[in-house]
Amino acid sequence: MKYKIISAVGLILIILINISSCKKYLDIKPDKSLVVPSSLNDLQAMLDDAMTMNLLWPVGGEVYSDSYYVTDDDWKSLPQIDRLMYIFDNEASYSGDWFLTYRIILNTNLVLERLEKIDDKNTDRKKQIKASALFFRSMAHYVLLQEFSQGYTVSSENGDEPGIPLKLKSDINVESSRSTIRECYGVILEDLQKALPDLPNEVLFKTRPSKTAGYALMARINLSIGNYRDAGKYAALCINQGLTILDYNLVNRDAPFERYNSEVIFHLTGNYSTLLDPTVGKVDSNLVNLYPPGDLRRHLFFFQNVDSTWAFRGSYDGSASVQMFCGLAADEVYLIRAECLAREGQDNEALAVLNSFLKMRYDSSFTPRTANSGNVLQLILNERIKELLFRGVRWEDIRRLNTDGGNIVVKRKIQGKEYLLAHNDLRYAQQIPIDVLAQSHIQKNHR
C-alpha cells in the first residue's frame, strides 16, 4: 500500500509559509482567503495529509542516543548543525523538529475548531475525526517534550520546570509561553484519554490512528514517566486488541522490511538527519554482538560495510528509505507489558510475555528464558535496546532510566576528544531553536 498523501489544494484552511522566517514562535499563518473546509471529508483529508501528519517527525532524540557513532572523517564533512548535535553542543537543536511538529499541532487545532462548525448528522464520524485529531495533538506535544524539556517521572521532583508551549488553539497571535513539565503531561494524557473511546477499532490506512494505536501510545507515555501500573494496563489492552508479532523466520532476509507490515500499529517516519543516514551513522560492533547465534535480528537489522563497519537496515519504514520508522508497533507493546509485569514482581508472567515475543525473533535453536537466565527486569531492558533501536525509543529510555536513578552516560569521541552526556546533564533538554528565541519571549533552556 502506498502512502496516502492527499492534496490540500482547495480544501485546507492554511498555507504554511517558509519556516526560516519565524513569526512569534511558529512560522505558520492561516490564509483566510483560501476555501474553508466545509465537510467532514475535507477535515479527514487534512488529517490524511501524510506529508504533514506522518512523515516528518522529530529525530533529535535518536541523534542524542547511544546506538551509533560517526568517524572523524565523516564528522568533518557533516553540515554544521549535525556536527554540533553529535557532540551535544549547548545551543544545538534541530529547528525542523520544532517547526514541523508544531505544524502538525496547528493542523489538528484547525480540524478541531472547524469540526464544531460543520453541521453533519453523522455524529459517529465526527467523533472519530475529533478523536484522531486529539491523538495526533497528544503525540506531537509528547515527542516535543522528549527533546526540549528535561526528563520526568512521577517520582521525580522536577515537574515544575519548563516544559514546552502547549498549543490548544489555532490562533498564532496568542503569545506563547512554556507550561511546566507536569502540566504538559497532564494535557497530553487528557487529550489521549478523550480520544480513546471514539478511535476506530480498524482503519483503512495505518497512517490513521486506531484504538489499538491509542492504547499503544498510552502505554508508551505512561512508561516514559515511570507510571508502570498504567503502562502495563494499556499494553495489556493493546495486546488484547489482537496484535501480530512478525515471525522473523518467515521474513525475507535479503529485502527490507515491508512497509505497513502486520506488526505495525501506526505508521510514522522521522525527519531526515545526516547523522542517522546508514552511510554515516555506524552501529558499534559491541551492540551488534549483543545478538547471539540464532537471533535472526542480527542479519535483518544490520549489514556490514566494505570497511567492516556495521550499518542499520531494519527500519519498519520499508523500501530503501533512510528515514527511521518512529511509529507504534506490536514488539514495543509486548516489551512494555513484560517490563511492567517484572516491575510489579510478577517475574513468571513477565517471562511468559517476553518468551512469546522472543520465539518469533530466533530460529529453531531458541531456548525460553527462565528465572535462571538472570535478572528478569534487566533481561527485558536489554531486549528493548536490541529490538527498538533507531525508533526514537532509546532516547526516551535513557531519559526515563536516568531520571529514575540510572547512570547511563552517552559518549562521543571525535578527533581524540571525548564528549559526555552524563545522567544529570542539563543538555538532556535540547536548546529551543535560536530563531524561536530571537523572535519570541519563550524561556531558554538552562545550561
TrEMBL record:
RagB/SusD domain mapped to chain residues: 332-402
InterPro entries: SusD-like_N (IPR033985), SusD_RagB_dom (IPR012944), TPR-like_helical_dom_sf (IPR011990)
Keyword Membrane annotated: yes
TM helices/strands, residue ranges: none
Record keywords, A-Z: Cell outer membrane, Membrane, Signal
Location of this chain's protein in the cell: Cell outer membrane
Cellular component per GO, a single term: cell outer membrane
Keyword presence, Signal: yes
Ranges where the SusD-like N-terminal domain occurs: 24-223
Major subcellular location class: membrane
Pfam families on file: SusD-like_3, SusD_RagB
Family statement: Belongs to the SusD family.
The protein's name in its UniProt record: RagB/SusD family nutrient uptake outer membrane protein
Species for this entry: Chitinophaga eiseniae
